[in-house]
C-alpha cells in the first residue's frame, strides 16, 4: 500500500511539490520558534551560572535595563559612587565584589563603537572563562590594555604592540590577548579601573558592582540590606532571568500564534490537493473498490497520502530550519534585550518530534473529507464516469 | 461571453476548492491585518494613556520603573513606598511647575472586582485639566471622588454614604463623580491623601509623585536636578517620554518578527492559490485547447487564468479583512492577557488605509501566484490539449 501511496504522490510532481513546499516552510518556522525558546532558556541559565554572580548593584534607573547593559558590556547613563563598593565589601555575606566601569567610545571613521571596560583584579574570580592566549596575566602599569579575541582581531594587535588611541588621546601597550570565550568579553578592551575612570572622566564612579555571596542561598537576606545603599539598587540574577523569560514568553506566544496560521493555511492546501486527486481518480478508485478493496482500505489510502506528504514536509522543514538557523540567530541576537553568547537556536530533537506529530495530525485532519468522499464511491461508478 | 463571466464560471465549477483556497488567503490576510492594526492601536493607546496621566515625569520607589509606571497607569498594589518628605523636595526642584503626591492601593474584595483607591490632594487637579467633576473634589476627610464606571456599577449618587469595597467597617461620603475620561481614572476611587494613608496603614508614605514641568523641552535637565536632590538617591525618576520610547522600540522589534512570520503565512497561502489554479488548468486542458482552436490567443488564455486567480485572491482578501474585523474583540482580550504592558484603549483599531493595503497586497500576491499556472495554460498547444489531458 505504501508503494501505491508513493506512486500516487509522484504522479503529480509539480502539484504535490508545491503543497510540500508550503508545509515545509510553515514547519521550518515552527521548528525555529520552538527550538529558540528552549535554547534561549538553556543558554541564559548557563551564562548566569558560569559567572557565579548572584546579584549586581546598579545605579538607580531600570535595574533590568542596567544589568543587561552591564552583562552585554554596554554603557550606562548613570553611575554609582565608589563608596558603594566599600559598603558592599563590608557586608558579612559578600564573598567577592567586583567593581566595573564601562564606557563606549564611538569611532566615527570605522563606524563602530569600542567598548572599554575598567576592572580590578577581583573580576578575575568572577570570569572563569577568562584565559590569556598570550602575554601577561594582568596589567603591570596603568597604560596597558588586554584585548578580547575579536577586538584583537579587528585591531590586528599582538601582545607588546603599542598603539595610540586618538579618541582617548592616550598611548596603550597591549598586555595580553584573551582566548575566545563566546561571551561579550570577546569584543571588549580591558584596562585597569583607575585608567578607565580617568579616560572617561568618571573619577570615583562605577557602572556596576558584581557580587558573589558566600552562600547563594543568602540572596534573600542580603538583597534588602544592599538595597539600602544610597543611589544604588540590587538586581538578583534569578529575578532578572524571570523577567526576561516572561517577556520572551509573551513574544513567543504571539509568534507561535502567527506560525499556527501558516500551518492552518498549508493544511487547507493539502485538503485541496487531495480533493482534486480524488476527483481525478474517480475511475481508478471505483475500480479499486470493484476488484475488492474495502471502504476502510480506500480511506486509509487517501489519508496515508496526506500524512506522507505532511510528514515529508515536516522533515524538510526541519532540515531547512537547520540550514537557515544560524542566519536567523544572528538576526535575533540583534534585537533581543538579553541575548546569551551561546548558540540559542539549536534545533532540538524535542522540537522536531513535536512538529512531526503536529504534521501527522494536520495531515490526517486535512485528509478526512477527501478520503471520506473517496471511500463513499460506488464500484459501479467505474464504468460510468468518463 | 466576456472574460469576467468566463472566470466566474470556474467558481461555479469547483465551488468547494475555490472556497477553501480563498479561505487560506483569508486566514493569512486576517493575521497580517490584525498585526498592522494592532500596532497602530497600541501606539496611540500608549500615547493617550500617558497624556491622560498629565505628568511629564513620574517619581516612584526603587525598583523597575516600567513596572512602577504600569502600576501608576492601571492601578495596583505597590510593593514599596516613598517617604512623604520627598514630596516637598520634588516640588521645590528647579523646572518643576507642579507636582502631585499620590498613595495608591488596590484591594480585591470577594466579588472578583478590583477596587483601586488613590489618595490625592487638590494639586492633582492641575495635572488633569480634562477632568469634569459632578459635585466637588473631596474637601474633608472621608469624602470620595469616584470614577464614572464605579458610579455606574455601584449605583451611587452624590452625597450618598457608602461602605468602602474591600475595607470592612470604613465608610465614605461621595462628594463628586468624575465624568467619563475613557481611561483608568474611570475605575479609580479618589480620596484624601491622609485617608488613604490611614486606611492602608502607611502614614507619611507615598507610592508615587506625578510631576509636571514648566518646560517639557527641558526634560533632561530637570530630571538631572531631580536625581541630584537630597532624596534623589532613594527614588527613581522616570521620564515618561523615555518610557514611551523604550516600550515602543520593544513593540517595534516584536512587530518586525511577527510581520516576518505573517508574511511567511501569506507565502504559504500563495503556494496554495498557485496549486489550486494549476489543478484547474490541468482539469480543463481540453477546454482550453478548444478555446485556442476557435481563435483565442495565448494572451487571452493567460489573461483568463490570471483573472481567475485574482478573483480567488480578492474574495479571500475581503473575507480576511472581514474575519479580522469580526475576531478583533476576541483577539484583543487574548492579547491583553499576554502582553506585559497594555494600554486600556482599544488595541486593534479599524483603519481603512491598512485594510486597503492588505487587499492590494493580496492582489499582488495573486498575480505572482497566477504566473506559473497561467503561463502553463498559455503554452498548451490546441491539438495536444484536445487529444489528451496534459500532465501538470
Notes on the structure:
The complex is a heterodimer of chains A (386) and B (392). By secondary structure, chain A is α+β, with helices and mostly antiparallel strands. Chain A folds into 2 domains: 187 residues, no CATH class; 170 residues, no CATH class. In chain A, strands 1, 3, 4, 5, 6, 7, 8, 9, 11 and 12 form a 10-stranded mixed beta sheet that branches. Chain A has a two-stranded antiparallel ribbon with strand order 2-10. In chain A, strand 3 and strand 4 form a beta hairpin. Chain A is elongated. The two termini of chain A are 26 Å apart. The mean pLDDT of chain A is 80. Chain B has 2 domains: 188 residues, no CATH class; 173 residues, no CATH class. Chain B is 57% helix and 15% strand. Chain B is an alpha+beta fold and 392 residues long. The model of chain B has no long low-confidence stretch (mean pLDDT 83). Chain B has 13 helices and 12 strands. Chain B starts with a helix and ends in a 5-residue tail after the last helix. In chain B, helix 1 packs across helix 11 and helix 2 packs across helix 11. At the A-B interface, helix 2, helix 3 and helix 9 of A face helix 2 and helix 9 of B.
Amino acid at each position: 500500500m505504501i508503494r501505491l501511496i508513493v506512486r500516487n504522490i509522484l504522479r503529480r510532481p509539480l502539484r504535490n511539490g508545491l503543497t510540500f513546499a508550503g508545509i515545509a516552510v510553515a514547519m521550518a518556522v515552527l521548528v525555529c520558534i520552538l527550538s529558540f525558546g528552549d535554547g534561549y532558556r538553556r543558554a541564559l541559565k548557563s551564562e548566569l551560572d558560569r559567572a557565579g554572580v548572584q546579584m549586581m548593584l546598579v545605579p538607580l534607573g531600570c535595574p533590568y535595563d542596567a544589568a543587561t547593559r552591564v552583562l552585554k558590556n554596554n554603557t550606562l547613563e548613570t553611575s554609582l559612587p565608589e563608596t558603594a563598593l566599600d559598603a558592599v565589601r563590608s557586608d558579612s555575606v559578600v564573598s567577592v565584589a567586583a567593581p566595573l566601569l564601562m564606557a563606549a567610545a564611538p569611532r566615527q571613521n570605522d563606524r563602530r563603537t569600542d567598548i572599554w571596560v575598567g576592572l580590578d583584579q577581583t573580576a578575575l574570580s568572577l570570569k572563569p572563562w577568562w584565559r590569556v592566549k598570550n602575554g601577561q596575566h594582568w596589567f603591570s602599569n596603568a597604560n596597558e590594555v588586554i584585548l578580547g579575541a575579536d577586538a584583537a582581531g579587528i585591531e590586528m594587535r599582538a601582545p607588546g604592540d603599542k598603539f595610540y588611541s586618538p579618541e582617548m588621546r592616550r598611548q596603550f601597550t597591549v598586555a595580553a590577548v584573551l582566548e575566545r570565550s563566546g561571551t561579550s568579553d570577546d569584543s571588549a578592551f580591558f584596562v585597569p579601573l583607575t585608567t578607565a575612570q580617568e579616560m572617561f572622566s568618571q573619577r570615583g564612579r562605577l557602572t556596576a558592582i558584581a557580587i558573589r555571596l558566600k552562600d547563594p542561598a543568602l540572596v534573600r537576606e542580603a538583597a534588602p540590606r544592599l538595597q539600602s545603599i544610597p543611589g544604588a539598587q540590587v538586581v538578583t540574577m534569578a529575578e532578572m532571568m524571570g523577567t526576561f523569560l516572561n517577556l520572551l514568553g509573551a513574544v513567543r506566544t504571539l509568534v507561535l500564534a502567527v506560525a499556527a496560521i501558516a500551518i492552518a493555511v498549508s493544511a487547507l492546501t493539502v485538503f485541496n490537493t487531495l480533493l482534486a486527486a480524488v476527483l481525478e481518480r474517480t475511475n481508478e478508485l471505483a475500480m479499486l473498490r470493484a476488484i475488492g478493496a474495502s471502504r476502510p482500505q480506500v480511506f486509509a489510502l487517501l489519508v496515508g497520502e496526506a500524512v506522507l506528504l505532511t510528514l515529508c514536509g515536516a522533515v524538510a522543514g526541519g532540515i531547512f530550519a537547520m540550514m537557515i538557523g544560524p542566519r536567523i540567530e544572528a538576526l535575533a541576537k540583534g534585537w533581543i534585550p538579553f541575548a546569551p553568547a551561546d548558540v540559542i537556536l539549536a534545533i532540538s530533537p524535542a522540537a522536531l518530534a513535536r512538529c512531526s506529530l503536529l504534521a501527522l495530525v494536520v495531515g490526517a485532519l486535512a485528509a478526512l473529507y477527501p478520503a471520506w468522499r473517496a471511500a463513499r464511491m460506488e464500484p459501479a461508478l467505474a464504468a460510468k464516469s468518463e | 461571453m466576456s472574460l469576467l463571466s468566463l472566470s466566474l464560471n470556474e467558481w461555479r465549477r469547483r465551488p468547494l476548492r475555490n472556497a477553501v483556497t480563498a479561505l487560506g488567503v483569508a486566514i493569512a490576510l486576517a493575521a497580517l491585518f490584525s498585526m498592522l492594526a494592532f500596532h497602530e492601536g497600541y501606539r496611540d493607546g500608549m500615547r493617550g494613556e500617558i497624556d491622560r496621566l498629565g505628568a511629564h515625569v513620574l517619581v516612584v520607589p526603587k525598583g523597575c520603573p516600567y513596572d512602577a509606571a504600569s502600576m501608576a497607569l492601571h492601578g495596583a498594589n505597590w510593593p514599596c513606598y516613598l517617604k512623604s518628605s520627598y514630596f516637598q523636595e520634588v516640588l521645590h526642584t528647579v523646572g518643576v511647575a507642579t507636582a502631585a503626591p499620590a498613595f495608591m492601593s488596590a484591594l480585591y474584595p470577594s466579588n472578583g472586582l478590583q477596587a483601586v483607591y488613590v489618595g490625592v490632594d487638590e494639586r492633582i487637579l492641575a495635572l488633569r485639566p480634562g477632568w469634569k467633576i459632578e459635585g466637588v473634589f473631596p474637601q474633608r476627610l472621608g469624602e470620595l471622588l469616584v470614577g464614572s464606571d464605579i458610579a455606574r456599577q455601584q449605583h451611587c449618587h452624590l452625597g450618598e454614604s457608602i461602605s468602602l469595597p474591600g475595607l470592612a467597617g470604613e465608610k465614605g461620603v461621595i462628594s463628586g463623580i468624575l465624568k467619563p475620561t475613557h481611561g483608568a481614572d474611570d475605575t479609580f476611587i479618589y480620596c484624601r491623601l491622609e485617608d488613604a494613608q490611614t486606611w492602608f496603614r502607611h502614614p507619611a508614605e507615598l507610592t508615587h509623585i506625578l510631576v509636571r514641568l514648566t518646560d517639557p523641552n527641558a526634560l533632561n535637565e530637570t530630571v538631572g536636578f531631580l536625581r541630584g536632590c537630597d532624596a534623589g538617591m532613594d527614588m527613581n525618576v522616570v521620564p515618561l517620554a523615555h518610557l514611551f520610547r523604550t516600550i515602543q522600540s520593544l513593540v517595534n522589534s516584536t512587530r518586525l518578527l511577527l510581520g516576518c512570520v505573517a508574511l511567511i503565512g501569506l507565502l504559504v497561502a500563495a503556494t496554495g492559490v498557485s496549486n489550486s489554479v494549476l489543478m484547474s488548468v490541468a482539469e480543463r486542458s481540453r477546454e482550453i485547447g478548444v478555446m485556442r482552436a476557435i481563435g483565442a490567443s495565448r494572451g487571452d488564455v493567460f489573461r483568463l487564468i490570471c483573472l481567475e486567480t485574482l478573483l480567488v485572491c480578492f474574495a479571500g482578501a475581503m473575507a480576511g479583512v472581514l474575519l479580522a474585523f469580526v475576531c478583533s474583540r476576541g483577539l484583543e482580550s487574548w492579547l491583553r492577557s499576554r502582553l506585559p504592558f497594555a494600554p486600556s484603549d482599544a488595541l486593534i483599531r479599524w483603519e481603512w488605509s491598512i485594510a486597503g493595503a492588505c487587499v492590494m497586497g493580496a492582489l499582488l500576491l495573486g498575480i505572482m501566484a497566477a504566473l506559473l499556472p497561467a503561463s502553463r495554460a498559455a503554452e498548451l498547444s490546441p491539438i495536444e490539449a484536445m487529444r489528451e489531458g496534459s500532465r501538470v
